[in-house]
Structure formats: C-alpha cells, structure tokens
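Quick one, tokens below. Sequence please?
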C-alpha cells in the first residue's frame, strides 16, 4: 500500500467534486496551504511528530486538482491528536471538513486506535465540527487547551486489513572524512544492494540528534563525532513483507577524524547491513546501485559549499520509497 493513496479505498468518502488523499507532511500542496494566514498562525506542528496527513482537493475546470483543505494526526507525549483541520473559505459548508475528520479517525484506527484528542480554536465552526461528529467535550489533556475547546473520541483498534501500517520517527548521520568522502552503509535487501546513511528509529524520549549519534555508533563504531543540524528532512513509504512503513527522518552532519569503521556492533535485527564504505561524490554519482536518500549529492553540494543551511532542505523523493513485497 504505497502512499500517497486515495482514501476512498478505505471507505472514506469525499463530497462530490472533491477527493481526499493520504500524503506526507512535506507534500508541496500541504506546505502551500500552510501559507494561508488563517492556518499559519496555528501551525505549531513538529515534523517528526506528524503521523499522517489528509489532503482535500477540489476538481478544477482544467481537469487538475486544487488543494483546499487538510488535517494532521500528531503523536507526542503519548497522546494522539488531530491538528490543523482546515478548509479554505470558498469550500466550507460543503462537508469537506467532516470528510477530513472522518479520514483522520480512520487513519487513527490504522495506527492503533484508542483515545484520539483534539484541541480546537474557540470559534463556533471548529467546535460544531467535532460536536456534530459525536466527539466528547473534555478538559485539556495536552497542556495547550487554554482559551480553546478540547474534545476526545474513543476509537476501536485496527482490523486485520489495516494493521500493517506503521509510522516511525528516525534520524540519520551524514559523516565526512578529511577528504570529503561520505560514510555509507551497505544494505542487502531482497538480493539487491542499497547504500544509505547510518541511522534508524528514535527511541523513547531521546532527541533526533541523540538517535543519530547512537545509530552511528551501533552501525559503524564511530563515537564522539559532533553532529550539526538537522540539515535535511525527508519522509517516505517502504513496503516490507510484514508492514508498510511511513518514515519521517531528520539528517544531521559532521566530520570524523577517524576512518576506522566496523559493523561488529550491528544488532541482530539489522543483519541486512552487510558492510560500510567511504564514498567520494564522484564515486557516488557513478554508482549503479540504489543510493538513499536519492538526492544525497544535492545535499552534499550544499554542505560542502555553505555548511549547515539556515533551514533543513526537503529531500523527499518518490525514488526513496522501496517496495520489498
């Protein structure tokens, strides 16, 4: 079930002339909507906390689709919340907002179900949306409910058809040596070699940079490498035999005085990691194997020219999604 995907496949309907898609937070259309002043003021969402995003689009006269609304599922501090449920003014009162909320509820079930929260502005439209959908008014459970309305909804757990969907926060380390070579992991997946940056999932309460440093030590043996950033963000969807993974990751970078690396500390569940190599940019450009992120050379060019960019680059690319079923 690679994504983005039309949510109608999961029984979520949209009003006539509209469609709903499950997309990534870094989707250009979502970021375009966030520039609306009515939404930008409340867009206090951290990239790594975004579990899923619903995008509402209206069919235009030129046979194209125009983004007109969105909604976000966020997980933080053990709570799952809906955020940024928004519809452009010209498309309100047509059931678009209710469809977005229905889609978020469905996605919340896929991610495990249980208690779903919402903290909305105190304006009547937002309050009416949740009340009409049968949500229960509650006191704030997330600490940011002052002057707002808070709601909750108890959801069932995932069914067998949807329990394969998982979302993960991750971090990676881009490490250069004194000759500007970049350290890559060699990964054997389904008989094919994929080269990637050291990294993996963020554990518990550790920060993204702490996770990148821990994974760097576990996968390469390098310790004490100072990492700066994040210098880039990306999200992608991998189809594995037992799970569809939606990964959001931040990339940090640093320089290592040592080039002595080893896979001796690699964990048993990462047996696919079979080797390490320092690559020059020219060698990477000529490498016939898959390299992830696919836009790594673009990131390297920026880092070597200007150092840490003022804002993380968006490296999301369809080429980074694997289909290993």
């Amino acid at each position: 079930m690679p994504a983005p995907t039309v949510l109608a496949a999961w029984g979520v309907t949209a009003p006539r002339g509209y469609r709903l898609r499950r997309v990534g937070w870094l989707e250009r259309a979502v970021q375009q909507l966030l520039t609306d002043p009515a939404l930008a003021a409340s867009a206090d969402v951290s990239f790594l906390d975004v579990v899923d995003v619903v995008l509402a689009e209206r069919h235009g006269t030129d046979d194209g689709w125009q983004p007109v609304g969105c909604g976000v599922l966020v997980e933080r501090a053990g709570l799952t919340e809906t955020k940024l449920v928004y519809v452009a003014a010209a498309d309100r009162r047509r059931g678009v907002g209710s469809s977005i909320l229905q889609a978020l509820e469905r996605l919340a079930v896929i991610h495990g179900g249980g208690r779903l929260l919402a903290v909305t502005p105190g304006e009547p439209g937002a309050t009416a949306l949740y009340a009409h959908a049968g949500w229960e008014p509650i006191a704030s459970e997330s600490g940011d409910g002052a002057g707002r309305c808070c709601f909750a909804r108890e959801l069932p757990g995932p069914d067998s058809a949807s329990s394969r969907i998982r979302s993960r926060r991750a971090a990676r380390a881009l490490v250069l040596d004194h000759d500007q070579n970049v350290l890559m992991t060699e990964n054997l997946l389904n008989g094919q070699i994929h080269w990637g940056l050291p990294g993996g999932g963020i554990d518990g309460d550790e920060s993204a940079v702490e996770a990148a440093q821990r994974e760097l030590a576990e996968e390469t043996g390098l310790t004490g490498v100072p990492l700066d950033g994040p210098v880039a963000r990306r999200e992608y969807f991998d189809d594995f035999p037992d799970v569809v993974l939606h990964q959001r990751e931040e990339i940090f970078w640093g320089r290592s005085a040592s080039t002595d690396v080893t896979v001796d500390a690699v964990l048993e569940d990462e047996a696919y990691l079979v080797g390490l190599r320092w690559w020059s940019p020219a060698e990477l450009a000529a490498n016939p194997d898959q390299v992830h992120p696919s836009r790594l050379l673009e990131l390297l060019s920026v880092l070597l020219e200007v150092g840490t960019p003022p804002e993380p680059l968006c490296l999301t690319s369809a080429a980074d999604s694997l289909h290993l079923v």
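The chain has seven helices and 17 strands. The radius of gyration is 21 Å.
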